[in-house]
Amino acid sequence: MKPVDFISWFDEDEARLAVLSSFEFEPIHFESRLMRSAALIGARRIIVFVDANQFQKMLADRPPARWINQRYLVVPVKRKGGVFHPKLGLLVGEERARVFCGSNNLTQAGSAHNLELLNSVVITAGEEPRLDHLAVAQAALAFFKSCAEFGEPQAARVAKRWLEEMTDDFPWLAAEAPATEVELVHTLDGSLWDWLRKRVGTSPPRKIQVLSPFYDADLRLLERVRKAWPTCSVEITAQQRTSNLPASLLSQFGKSVRLFDLDGAGSRRLHAKLLTVVADGRTICLCGSANFTAAAFDGLNVETCFAWDVGNERLKELYEGEFTRSAISPGDFEPGVEQPPAEDTESVTPLSVKSAMLDDSGKLVVTFKIKDGMPVENLGVALQRAGEASPVVCLEVKPGGSGLAEFSLKPETVSSFGGAVAVYLIAEAAGQTLSSPPTWLIQEGRLTHETSENGNHQGRETEIRETGRGLVEQLDEIGTKEGQLQLIQYLNNLSIRFDDSEHSRRGGWRPKPKIQDPYRPDTAPEWMAELASQFPDIEAAILEFADRHSHKVLRRHARRANINGLANFVDVLITVTKLLYVFWRRGVVNKQQMIGRLVQYLEIFTDGFETQEDGSEGYISGLFEALHGSSSLLKKPLEENNVAGHLRALLLIAQSARANPNEPGASRPRQCLQSKLEKVRESLAMVKLAAATPDQVASALRAYDMLTEDEIATWLKELAG
What CA–CA distance (Å, rounded) separates 417 from 423? Predict the structure, then answer.
């Protein structure tokens, strides 16, 4: 067993279809991190099965979801008598699949903070197939098909169709599966207790180890274990002030039941679930979503676990690393107060939307419920785009409805749904205006995500994160399809990687073929036409993005002074400069804000700056010092990355923006920022580089992909002057 980053599994696999399940679900975390992973960014279809009651509670908070039921489908599942509690995932690509099963929910805490236990298996088809665990993938697919039978009908209908098409899309999934040592065990077709009794067989187990955050208030499952196998010792590992273990009841089971406290966790919360049974010379391991409760093991809850035989030495490793355990007296154990998940029996709200489905023709079907006997007048269905304060449309529901309403939306209304859309009821009852908790509109026609004709979307996203190239074009696509709120969220969540490795030096910017229609910074796209009042929000996001990358990439390179990071420095410099310049030309970014930052980037690139409030080392001066002025070590990489050309091009962009035809002494670009030109000259002289030639400056300007050849030629005339 080893520590792993759960999210790293999503960064390793490229999925065409992903099916996930969770008890709790946080759309913000899912969209900001998992949806941008290698597995999901280019996925054709994504399904998330969630517990219906937990999903309803989440909806009441109206989180700013961006893609829910528009880029991925959420299927609420309700099974009477218990909760929907599995944490199972299936990622399927053209010739590769991963199945993972564990204890973590699709939440930020579950992905990054809690102490969780997870397992995964990989299946590879193609020329060198590895089908050892194909049966596990087939069992996972069958499980999800069964889940759809308990799902909200409209969402489940779409999910069922997708799941049935999987074996047509990936024929190797239906191949004959070899025997596998790993078994997927779930409670849709039986109880874990019955499975465990059958797996143990007639030989009574010698020892059982339990790791779990939740237990029965009366320890009924432990009592059942003791009755079934009275000579078996039981070791329980729990976490004080977190696990709800009623330790005071342990004394009634005698000395054969021992309690251990988990050490080394700090503020991290134990959420892992593990049961091991030593019987007949082998150790059975059951690990997944099931807590040590009767509701989990009797099949009231829907649970999933991986089961396999494991060596004793592997179990020892669990408590020999960062986290250890120590024996503790039951009287010294302080239990937590949180209780295990249970079916929500609270009364429903008087108004509720069960589901809302929009098909390709613009037909909207809404199913809803009104509390029996509640007099309602002027009932309407409101549709509100994510992030906006008011609905874009409110549709009247005729009185006497049966809980089903159908509408035909106007094409212009449908086309305005660039992202997620909340749907809720508004009614007048007894002189009051009431509204229901929202649900998210299922936009069926947009859920299947095909690869763009202009290239692989996943590859484009990877390039943006690696180099920043294509960022402005990506922002325009987001603004066109999804709106300014989603554009801002994208900028807030995007980080171009810092890289000062040899790989970065080899992979730096190189001239590319001349384009016929470069990106035009002064041509505002249609999505901006009606957003002038919202430009301050976009400007703030752009400036925050630029400042974040100045600190985390540009200044960090200057501080570390590693020649191998030069290509990465230039990539990020081009990205933030183009972003600021383009949106200045569009009237979004203030000119002084832009020029001030470009000048600062020039200073970071050369010999640094220092003010009372701020300061940074200089990259070139740092390289000179780190390499003791060795021209033989410096000159080649500086020339390969066209440093002279990029320094002069950056200054020329700032000079062109600063120039004012009506200002004496600054009417021409070459008249502006003369002190910064001297700084460029001094830095080049320090590392024994000649001043940039017009060709070098032109090459650097082309890297920005924002000027025509005529504009570049006009700018170069300033150099001659």
Answer: 12
| Local structure of 207: helix, strand or coil | strand
Decide if 257 contacts 200 (C-beta within 8 A): no
| Other residues' Cβ atoms within 10 Å of the Cβ of residue 359 | 12
Structure tokens at 263: 């050490």
pLDDT 10s digits, 328-365: 999 999 999 999 988 776 656 888 899 999 998 999 99
Q: Could you give the CA distance from residue 33 to residue 492 in angstroms, rounded to a whole number?
A: 12
**Span 354-446 CATH architecture:** Sandwich (2.60)
pTM: 0.69
Q: In what order do the strands lie in the sheet with 183-186?
A: 183-186, 304-309, 282-288, 274-279, 207-211, 233-238, 257-263, 324-327
Domains 186-332 and 354-446 share a fold: no
Parse the chain into domains and list their residue ranges. 6-180, 186-332, 354-446, 537-720
The first and second tokens of residue 106, run together, are 């699709």
**Residue 116's pLDDT band (cuts 50, 70, 90):** very high
For residue 419, give the nearest of 390, 448, 441 by alpha carbon: 441
Q: Which of 642, 660, 579 is nearest to 605 (CA)?
A: 642
Candidates 693, 678, 599, 581; CA nearest to 643 is 693
Contact 641, 509 (CB under 8 A): yes
Residues 400-431 pLDDT 10s: 667 899 999 988 888 888 788 999 999 988 78
> How big is the chain, counted in residues?
721
Task: Return phi, psi of residue 65, to 5°.
Answer: -70, 145
pLDDT of residue 515: 37
- Torsion angle of the four alpha carbons 152, 156, 157, 158, in this order, in degrees rounded to the nearest 10: 130
Strand order in the sheet with 96-102: 73-77, 45-51, 17-22, 88-92, 96-102, 118-124
CB-based contact 573:498 (threshold 8 Å): no
Three-state secondary structure call for residue 629: coil
Residue 454: which pLDDT band, with cuts at 50, 70 and 90?
very low
372 phi/psi in degrees, rounded to 5: -55, 135
Amino acid of residue 319: Y
Q: Token pair 């000062």 is at which residue?
A: 500
Q: State what percent of residues in the chain have pLDDT above 90.
A: 60
Instruction: Report the CATH fold assignment for 186-332.
Output: Endonuclease; Chain A (3.30.870)
Instruction: Give the residue with greater pLDDT, 431 vs 166.
Output: 166
Instruction: Give the integer Cα–Cα distance in Å for 697 and 643.
Output: 10
Beta strand pairing call for 442-443 and 351-358: parallel
Residues 6+ apart with CB under 8 A from 527: 476, 479, 480, 483, 484
CB atoms within 10 A of CB 238: 26
Crossing angle of helices 643-658 and 591-605, in 10° steps, is 160
| Whole-angstrom distance, CA of residue 219 vs CA of residue 228 | 14
β-bridge partners, 432: 429
When computed from its CA atoms, the radius of gyration of the chain, rounded to whole angstroms, is: 30
Tell me how crowded residue 694 is: count the other CB atoms within 10 A of its CB.
Answer: 16
Q: At what angle do helices 535-549 and 484-493 cross, to 10 degrees?
A: 10
Domain 6-180 CATH class label: alpha beta
Whether pLDDT at 448 is above 60:
yes
Q: What is the DSSP letter of 437?
A: P
Asked if 335 and 239 count as a contact pair (C-beta separation under 8 A), the reply is no
Worst-scoring range by mean pLDDT, 57-66, 151-160, 239-248, 602-611?
57-66
